[in-house]
Amino acid sequence: MYDAVITLEVNGEKRQSGDIKQMAYNVAELIAFLSALQELKADDLIYTGMPSGVGRVIRGDRLVGKIDGLVDLNVCLV
């Protein structure tokens, strides 16, 4: 999982895209660090931030978060 692209689409428009290798912290090290502070369970989400460009989102917007090789995360703002 060290060579994957993270993408965010808002209402079908790509707003952000970046490679995991560009993250400030290595994914495995980040998970290990957080696991030492609190037990991580299945379906837990770790928010790490994203590349610039997200802009404003409003009620009714549909967001799709994508990481190569994983199932997309679909969110509708209510």
Which features does this protein show?
4-stranded antiparallel β-sheet; alpha+beta; Fumarylacetoacetate hydrolase, domain 2; globular; 78 residues
Architecture overview:
The protein has one helix spanning 27-37, and strands at residues 5-10, 13-19, 62-67, 73-76. The longest helix is centred in the middle third of the chain and has 11 residues, at 27-37. It contains one helix and four strands, in the order E-E-H-E-E. The protein has one domain: Fumarylacetoacetate hydrolase, domain 2. Strand 1 and strand 2 form a beta hairpin. A four-stranded antiparallel sheet has the order 2-1-3-4, with no helix packed on it. It is an alpha+beta fold and 78 residues long.
Helix and strand topology:
Layout: E1 5-10, E2 13-19, H1 27-37, E3 62-67, E4 73-76
Short description:
The protein has 78 residues and is α+β, with helices and mostly antiparallel strands. It has 1 helix and 4 strands, in the order ββαββ.
